[in-house]
Specification:
Chain lengths: 582, 99, 110
């Protein structure tokens, strides 16, 4: 029996929704018929609009999808202006103020407190400037990711940007692929460092070499069925296919159609393609793709370069893209750390100006919630990196600041169990002030996710933290499960969840104790990941010794039982009413 | 507070401090931001910044107060802050002893 | 009288007549000897799987964890509230919930 969501999608979905959306925007939020609210809110997701949590009814999170995180000159300024004018609401964040933009782990942008009545103006401004929210959420092609500096990175072996651009043009808004059983996440990488994080996507194209007619050509190997959510993490499986760049679109479309036709539409929890790959195996996926969805003979997999992967591996020289790096045209791209991905609107505007002044005005967003300014001439690098703004968005940040990733959390998200972004800021500050890493360790990744949806990609970090609850002195408090030893690379591994339900105020002490043990017992210059790897779960559990310290956590109570965790009167009955039509 | 002067972000030293704004004609307990920073390029001074939520104090327009400190002045303040912090902590812990 | 029941937003909510009524992250007291060996499961609601109706009672199957002993999994049908004269009344947080032995309710998982 099809789910309600399937029924709603078959009635009105895709492009059609826009007309209705604009009508509701004109006439007012309360003209959405009461018995159709669920249906419309589900449909609005196709246009990147996600209804905020309870207590914040009538306000939407808006996601702007920027393929590969590429923001052309002028676009960052537009986002800053929209954030400044529209992304403000009844709740003010004590650390970040009001009016800010969130850079996400899929290289997109999220703005909060957006009112329905402002949507037509916002969409007009976005679209005038080449930006879109289309399909940023919902059951279709999500924002395509990869190495953010595709097309410029001196290390690339193939330019993935035209491929990504072409995929975006072909499949966004394509009626044949706009109603899939679930979300569809695609990654294309052109550098031999793994920076597109293909392994955790539904569909991944990673660089590989194939000898064709005696000549070695670079193209892409194809992997299918990665994903982190809901306690069922999977790495994408090798389906033994290599494609030249010209065929990426056909094969991607073939696999999207295969998913469309064969994914589970009865049970949304079984719908991602990772479960289909589990059920069929990689061989059957390949056979079906070959016989029913493409009309040419697929090559077998080529020689990959996974042995060279360094991104998010816990080792190697390019574990992330922060800092000063060469472009192949002789200028530089500079990765700046945006702590937990959140930047105030006035900072966004200032950075947009600096990017224009020093570079071309272009910036790129990374999967670690950071921002990269491209096209900085060699002789301008020193001056650019001395700019005062970079004090807070540094190309040379402390390891704990640098490695912090956090999802949206109970501030706005219905699914989350705990507070996240502000908490990770507090953790990073405390760790920076109180914990010393061994001198040769200049990166340490801590990912904080509010629940098992895993939007902060917790399973692939040095320390993974995932929202939970526990009791302290009989009272329920927010807690975190602790996972260790996750990372990508030639042999990707998911974190092992070694310690459960640590009260949130004891986490800094736990991390401090763990790092102390690491420093004392590591073999020579063994990486943290390697150190974790050679210990079993019980040993690791003993290293994670939760402890109260001078770290104080103001959000130990149930932040879900507020209309906004940081409001002075935060009771659910003190919340705002849905915004009036004005 | 939309006409804030000091930028509040993840690096602000104290995002939410208790501040008393006191004048001859007013005396208000309110909230404020306290930040310590230094120029990124050739730093030759430390800046201590305070901005209150002026919307709670009618008499005062939006403003931020910024104190320019030499390195040694900054340390003098830091030392004083440390020693008073010790004093407060000692009083709190002996005050909460059961005996 | 039909009541519209749904699991919404990837399991974050139970929606009754297009209103969000029951949320994840709550702590429930559950009597379920097959879930774990605790007398009462100190259950954190992580994700709703299915919602159904059994007479006047709205029931759910939910994935979660006992925060006392760490056992994880899906529960059997647990009550969340009642519909009386078309109005939904949610059960208080302190209610001890247990699965009814009665007939399997009609289901709707989204």
């Amino acid at each position: 029996m099809p789910t309600d969501v399937e029924r709603w999608k078959s009635e009105v979905y895709g492009q059609e929704i826009r007309e209705h959306l604009f009508e509701f925007a004109e006439e007012g939020y309360d003209t959405i018929p009461e018995d159709e609210r669920d249906a419309w809110f589900e449909r609005f997701k196709w246009w990147g609009l996600y209804h905020q949590r309870n207590g914040q009814e009538g306000y939407f999170m808006m996601r702007i999808g920027t393929p590969n995180g590429v923001m052309k000159p002028g676009q960052l300024r537009v986002v800053g202006e929209i954030a400044s004018e529209y992304a403000t609401g009844p709740g003010v964040n004590p650390i970040f103020g009001d009016g800010y933009a969130d850079f996400t782990t899929r290289q997109s942008i999220q703005l909060h407190w957006i009112e329905l009545s402002d949507i037509p103006d916002i969409f007009e401004k976005l679209e005038e400037n080449g930006l879109s929210t289309q399909q940023a959420c919902g059951d279709s092609w999500r924002n395509i990711v990869g190495n953010p500096v595709a097309g410029k990175d001196a290390r690339e072996v193939i330019d993935a940007w035209p491929v990504i651009h072409d995929l975006n043009e072909t499949f966004k808004g394509n009626d044949d692929h706009s109603n899939l059983p679930r979300k569809w996440k695609v990654s294309v990488t052109g550098t031999p460092d793994g920076s597109g994080q293909g392994d955790i996507n539904d569909l991944a194209f990673e660089p590989a070499y194939k000898t064709i007619d005696g000549e070695e050509t670079v193209g892409f190997n194809v992997r299918v069925g990665g994903g982190l959510a809901r306690n069922e993490p999977r790495f994408a499986r090798d389906i033994d296919v290599w494609v030249p760049p010209a065929d990426v679109s056909t094969v991607a479309g073939g696999l999207s159609a295969l998913f469309r036709d064969n994914g589970d539409r009865e049970d949304r929890y079984n719908a991602r393609i990772k479960f289909l790959v589990d059920e069929w195996g990689a061989d059957k996926v390949r056979e079906t793709l070959q016989s029913e969805y493409v009309d040419f003979e697929l090559h077998t997999a080529g020689r990959d370069v996974r042995e060279e992967y360094t991104y998010n591996t816990g080792d190697g020289d390019r574990n992330d893209l922060i800092g000063v790096h060469e472009q192949h045209d002789g200028s530089y791209f500079i990765g700046l750390n945006v702590l937990v991905g959140r930047m105030g609107a006035s900072d966004v505007l200032e950075l947009a100006d600096l990017a224009s002044e020093y570079g071309s005005g272009e910036v790129r967003l990374s999967q670690r919630q950071n921002i990269i300014v491209t096209d900085i001439p060699k002789d301008a690098v020193d001056e650019f990196t001395s700019e005062q703004l970079l004090e807070n968005y540094s190309p040379d940040p402390s390891p704990f600041m640098r490695g912090s990733v956090a999802c949206t959390g109970t501030e706005f998200c219905s699914l989350s169990i705990v507070e996240t972004k502000n908490r990770q800021v507090r953790y990073a500050r405390w760790l920076k002030d109180n914990v010393t890493l061994p001198g040769d360790v200049d990166e340490f990744h801590i990912h904080l996710s509010g629940c098992t949806a895993s939007c902060a990609q917790p399973q692939i970090a040095d320390i993974s933290l995932r929202g939970m609850k526990t009791r302290k002195n009989g009272e329920p408090v927010e807690a975190l499960d602790v996972g260790l030893g996750g990372g990508l690379g030639a042999e990707p591994q998911f974190a092992r969840w070694v310690t459960q339900r640590v009260p949130v105020d004891e986490i800094p002490g736990a991390i401090s104790n763990l790092i102390e043990t690491f420093a004392a017992e590591r073999n020579d210059d063994e990486s943290f990941r390697a150190f974790i790897d050679r210990h079993d779960n019980d040993e690791l559990d003993s290293f994670v010794a939760p402890e109260e310290t001078d770290y104080e956590d103001p959000m130990m109570h149930n932040t879900k039982r507020t209309w906004y965790p940081y409001a002075e009167n935060d009771g659910l009955d003190a919340g705002p009413s849905a915004p009036a039509d004005d | 507070m939309s006409d804030r002067l000091l930028r509040v972000n993840a690096y602000t030293t104290l995002d939410l401090a208790d501040v008393r704004a006191r004048g001859h004609d007013f005396d208000v307990n309110t909230l404020g931001v306290v930040n310590v920073t230094a120029p990124r390029k050739n730093p030759d001074h430390v800046t201590l910044q305070v901005e209150i939520d002026h919307t709670t104090v009618e008499m005062l327009p939006a403003h931020a107060d910024e104190v320019t400190l030499s390195a040694s002045e900054a340390r003098t303040i830091a030392d004083d802050l440390h020693s008073y912090a010790d004093r407060v902590e000692n009083a709190q812990s002996s005050g909460s002893d059961d005996a | 009288m039909t009541v519209r029941l749904r699991v919404l937003d990837d399991g974050a909510w139970i929606s009754v007549n297009d209103r969000r009524e029951v949320s994840v992250s709550e702590l429930w007291r559950v009597e379920a000897t097959d879930f774990c060996s605790c007398d009462l499961v100190d259950f954190v609601v992580e994700n709703f799987q299915t919602v159904g109706v059994n007479g006047q009672t709205i029931e759910v199957i939910v994935y979660g964890q006992c925060i006392a002993c760490g056992a994880t999994g899906e529960t059997e049908w647990l009550p969340v509230g009642r519909v009386i004269d078309g109005e939904f009344a949610v059960f208080d947080e302190s209610t001890v919930r247990r699965t009814r032995e009665s007939r399997k309710p009609e289901t709707n998982s989204g």
